[in-house]
Amino acid sequence: MSSRCHLSSLRVCLCLLVVAMLSGCASRKVVTAVEDQSYVQGPTPQTQAPLTEAKVYPPIPPPVVKEARIAEQPIAPAPPAQQPMSQARPVPELSDIFFDFDRFVIRNDAQSVLETNAGVLKSQSGEKILLEGHCDERGTSAYNLLLGERRAQATAQYLRDLGIPSSQIQITSYGKERPFCTEHSEACWQSNRRARFSR
Known about the structure:
37% helix, CATH 3.30.1330.60, 10% strand, four-stranded mixed beta sheet
């Protein structure tokens, strides 16, 4: 009888021990190391069903616009635009003058041209001009640059003698680099030996 009591008390103790262990394990967190982790491949994805084609709708017709009738009236012509006095009158052109071969002296036929140009410049006081000295193709580039400068200087001095202020005149030389005519003839060379007026 005592052995049976002893066995039953042992069973009770064993049951209590199992219950205590199970209740303690439920509140514990399980910690695993990285080495214990292993990749488990999931189920293979199913092939995606093809998209259904989009429906095509007919285009929307543009709205109908009704024309409004306007009573026809005669259109009066516009009055002529009034122009300022400075733009209403034409501006006379300044003429070039020409030189003899290898010379920078103002010729007799160039004097009347310069007098006309001086009159135009006096009527437009303050307008600056550029005197360009040009030569024909004969001679070196360096020599013709110097000769072209002397032609421009002689022209500027003649204009100053006619009363044009120096502040209105600038000079430059292009020598034979910018010919007016490119033929190889005396008539062409004569047209290239010039002092050109530009604004």
